[in-house]
Amino acid sequence: xxxxxxxxxxxxxxxxxxxxxxxxxxxxxxxxxxxxxxxxxxxxxxxxxxxxxxxxxxxxxxxxxxxxxxxxxxxxxxxxxxxxxxxxxxxxxxxxxxxxxxxxxxxxxxxxxxxxxxxxxxxxxxxxxxxxxxxxxxxxxxxxxxxxxxxxxxxxxxxxxxxxxxxxxxxxxxxxxxxxxxxxxxxxxxxxxxxxxxxxxxxxxxxxxxxxxxxxxxxxxxxxxxxxxxxxxxxxxxxxxxxxxxxxxxxxxxxxxxxxxxxxxxxxxxxxxxxxxxxxxxxxxxxxxxxxxxxxxxxxxxxxxxxxxxxxxxxxxxxxxxxxxxxxxxxxxxxxxxxxxxxxxxxxxx
Length: 350
Description:
Blueprint (H helix, E strand, L loop, with lengths): L4 H10 L20 H10 L28 H6 L45 E4 L4 E4 L1 H4 L18 H14 L10 E2 L12 E2 L1 E2 L21 H4 L4 E2 L4 E5 L7 E4 L8 H12 L5 H4 L6 H15 L3 H6 L12 E7 L5 E6 L5 E2 L2
Parallel strand pairs: 4-11, 7-10
Antiparallel strand pairs: 1-2, 3-6, 5-9, 7-8, 9-10
């Protein structure tokens, strides 16, 4: 009695028809189909057509003339051989208490230029007062502007460096002791000792104040006070400076009677509200701490005003909160120092 067809198919499918092509051994002779013979017959089988007749099946015991069986060679080739148990490698033990080892970076080929290299160009994104700017690392290493005072140092500079620069400035600058000695008008002279009040805010136009006070004015200032000469004898050019300002304020007069008090106050205000340049903000002397301090002062001054925010950072922002005008005092080399106080710790003169 012949076995059922389904059972024959199960035996046939389980006896290695999906063996690899180079299988060297034959199955038992009573199996109807031999895997090696069936796979080898694929090379000699002509392409199947509509008029071709299938070859007759042989007897069960004949293993040399099997019927042609189609087996996909791609499937046999793509079958992966599982690695032996002896060839498997256990993963290395990792100590979770230790930090992971650093990644190895591949060496760059200097012969192939790269458009962007993180070591040569580092971008710093900063929300600029006027626009969103991207600054390269080379911008932070460029020299300080030529219009800055040569003895200016940012607030982040050390005390020793400040003293060395001050001594060098006194030794190298040309002395002006042969020039006539000027006496400052009492309305501009800073009181001694320094008062606990200030007379007006340098961020505001002094002529727009309803009641403007000056040192030794003994009340509100009027036009007669503003038309007085700033020095005795009269001078046609005055140079003012502030320790926190990298610029020198120059006051010139086109009048024949010399520089007036109104000229001094007007030039201080007009030159402090000038916008700064990119080189004033990004150079080798300005640190990230200095830029953060200036940006904070700029935001406090604007107080959310869109018009002031669009104007950008001004020179007055370098002063921080020391914008309470106290007066002028004599300085080295024939210059006048602008004396200010912190408006958060002093009251305005009324």
